[in-house]
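1st attempt posting a full record on here, be nice pls
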Amino acid sequence: MTTKIFDAIIIGAGQAGPPLAGRLTAAGMSVALIERKLVGGTCVNTGCMPTKTMVASAYAAHLARRAADYGVTLSGPVGVDYAMIKARKDKVTIDARTNLETWIAGMDKCTLYRGHARFESANTVRVGDDLLTAEKIFLNTGGRASVPDLPGIHDIDYLTNSSMMDLDVLPRHLVVVGGSYISLEFAQMFRRFGAEVTVVEKSPRLTGREDEDVSAAILSILENEGIAVHVGADDIAFARQGDDIAVTFSAGKPPAVGSHVLLALGRTPHT
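the predicted structure (as tokens):
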């Protein structure tokens, strides 16, 4: 098997990989860019772009419900078409990914390999049947949602920030486990879409890295929108309850029973 020689190999075509490939090829270097799943990584496919697209739809629904505050009258209640919201989100993602792939394809001296990269030596990488070698190898492999081994977690179907993007129905009651940025973004978004939402957080307050007055303000905003929030959850566990999922958060208190559970408990690097 012939080994293909490059000046640089970049593993991961997410937020960092393609711009790095652009800088290196502009400097005259030959580059192998490797991606095992979707070009664009988290930001384009399951993070920044699709979620902010959905946030915009949620804000439009929220603003429409408050139309009277601005002297605007609407005939009938405000509803959402979740299938159309998802279709709009999918189009934004697909367009962004297609544009990124087109940009990569137009880079002189850049070759995109699709598959899982494995090191064969300090400077040799295998992708499927291809052997690639370079003096410089960059790892830009991103991360994934953390899934701690909580009691009952393997007995239920749960969602993460990634699988949430594939959801094609509006949850009746979404229980969000976690109290930081990703969890609260989804909580407010789906409440504004019309779902019942409960947030469960093990720390004594939301967004623990922020000042206490900021956490208090966020809590007030969420509760004013009808989101139930349980902080100081010291006994988180999961169990099937018919077609629903019971999420215990503190011993001696009734569990939150939801149709869907979203785990938003931090990120784990792929490296």
